[in-house]
Design a protein that fits this description.
Blueprint lengths: L17 E5 L2 H4 L10 H6 L17 H15 L3 E5 L2 H4 L8 H16 L3 E7 L5 H4 L8 H16 L6 E6 L1 H10 L10 H25 L4 E8 L2 E3 L4 H24 L21 H5 L5 E6 L3 E4 L7 E2 L16 H13 L5 E5 L8 E2 L2 E2 L2 H19 L4 E7 L18 E4 L4 E4 L1 H11 L2
Parallel strand pairs: 1-2, 1-13, 2-3, 3-4, 4-5, 5-7, 6-8, 7-10, 10-13
Antiparallel strand pairs: 8-9, 11-12, 14-15
Bound molecules: beta-D-fucopyranose (FCB).
Length: about 450
């Protein structure tokens, strides 16, 4: 297969549907010496944290190669580019704007505009300045206010150049992976920390939404959440209840406060020491009207009841991608439909979807049929959700190019463009060509 196939009358074949590619600052930029250190620099420097002992010092050298990269993005024919701003690149230690840092983004945004590519800007894709972590990071309520100040400065400096702002990318990962199980930066571990960090992240989101509404009312302002739909292994009451708990704990914990201003009821079942510190008014701040909701989707998980814990998560099963995540496209349809049933949703953008595959470069070509099949199945899963009434306005492939895949380092390749890390040469994979065809043939 070299082509994506959507049903002929699909609204996803209309010119109004937005197709894009996505990246994040720490994963592609490099030029770590031209910004403040962030929590991922520190985490990478800690032995045993990153699978291939790598770091983000040079990554895809995007700071150096950005012009070619924007040219590449344009050559794919996409409508939009989702990028993130590196907080430690644009803010100085004293909290004021780093003009050189912000200029980097201004030039990129101007170039995108010149080429008629919509900029979807994420304000926080995990690279918290280390000096803020030294003061407690997301466990410190003050970090939420620091974030709002950063967003104020950035949204003023980028005025008129941004089509859409997302406050946070995947607060689940920042809080649960970073502060509860410790497999992401800053690597803090403890049941008592995850929910507290999550609350301050959500507070940061709400405060930032207010700033964006004031400084950038013309852009689509919202948040990007990741969802891993939870499936019960059996129809037993106990397994179903454990699965529902898991869904509340990992998915709805972020969605419900943002949309409805309340945490899931399971909060009552958590020991008081594990609960967030909620001050009067917090939930109202968190629950701001959104212009859009970004949904990131990769896989699903299966659950059963546990004698010793809230739930037991089963390992992923075949078919899997190279990162070991089950390929289960219908979960994306079911997720979108269930969100649509549970919540009063703004327009949805699939802000990330894609697959790590064990790519091989043969005669200058990456013939990634497995990734093409993944994309094709998931694009159709989105189409199925649209047919069931869900308002999906766009789709972004993760990722534009191979990059630093967090705890996996450079060992996992998610790009639709191959990156040779020795030469920094980019080669569009067959999946990239198929994606480009889908978009340009509309
Ligand atoms: C998501 C992240 C993104 C990327 C993909 C594979 O959780 O937002 O940066 O690493 O996973």
């Amino acid at each position: 297969m070299t082509q994506f196939t959507l049903p002929k009358n699909s609204t996803m074949l209309s010119k109004d549907f937005i197709y894009g590619v996505a990246t994040a600052s720490f994963q592609i930029e490099g030029a770590a010496d031209q910004r403040l250190p962030c929590i991922w620099d520190t985490f990478c420097a800690t032995p045993g944290k990153i699978a291939d002992n790598s770091n983000g010092d040079s990554a895809c050298e995007h700071v150096k190669n950005w012009q070619d990269d924007v040219e590449l993005i344009d050559s794919l024919g996409v409508d939009a580019y989702r990028l993130s701003i590196s907080w430690p690149r644009v803010i100085k230690l004293d909290g004021t704007l780093n003009q050189e840092g912000i200029n980097f983004y201004i030039t990129i945004l101007d170039e995108l505009m010149r080429r008629n590519i919509k900029a979807f800007v994420t304000l926080y894709h995990w690279d918290l300045p280390q000096h803020l972590e030294d003061k407690g990071g997301w466990l410190n309520r003050e970090t939420a206010y620091e974030f709002a100040r950063y967003v104020d400065l950035v949204s003023k400096a980028l005025s008129g150049k941004v089509y859409s702002y997302a406050t946070l990318n995947e607060p689940f990962c920042s809080s649960y992976l970073g502060y509860e199980i410790g497999v992401h930066a800053p690597g803090i571990k403890g049941r008592e920390f995850g929910r507290k960090a999550a609350h301050h992240l959500l507070l940061a989101h709400g405060l930032a939404m207010k700033v964006l509404t004031k400084n950038s009312p013309e852009s689509l302002n919202g948040i990007v959440l990741n969802f891993t739909p939870c499936y019960s292994v059996s129809s037993s009451e106990a397994d179903i209840a454990a699965t529902a708990f898991a869904d509340d704990y990992i998915n709805q914990w972020y969605m419900k406060p943002v949309m409805q201003g309340a945490y899931p009821d399971i909060i009552e079942q958590l020991p008081p020491a594990h609960r967030p510190d909620i001050l009067a008014g917090d939930m109202d701040i968190i629950c701001q009207p959104l212009d859009f909701l970004g949904v990131n989707f990769y896989t699903r998980l299966r659950y059963e009841a546990s004698d010793t814990d809230y739930y037991h998560e089963l390992p992923h099963q075949a078919p899997m991608t190279d990162i070991g995540w089950e390929i289960y496209p219908s979960a994306l349809t079911e997720l979108l439909v269930s969100l649509h049933q549970k919540y009063d949703l703004p327009p949805i953008y699939i802000t990330e979807n894609g697959a790590a595959m064990a790519d091989k470069m043969v005669d200058g070509e990456v013939n990634d049929q497995d990734r093409i099949a993944y994309y094709n199945a998931h694009l159709n899963a989105v189409n199925d959700a649209i047919l069931q009434g869900v308002n999906v306005a766009g789709y972004f492939a993760w990722s534009l190019m191979d990059n630093f895949e967090w705890a996996e380092g450079y060992s996992k390749r998610f790009g639709i463009v191959h990156v040779d890390y020795n030469t920094q040469i980019r080669t569009v994979k067959l999946s990239g060509k198929a994606y480009s065809q889908l978009i340009t043939r509309r």
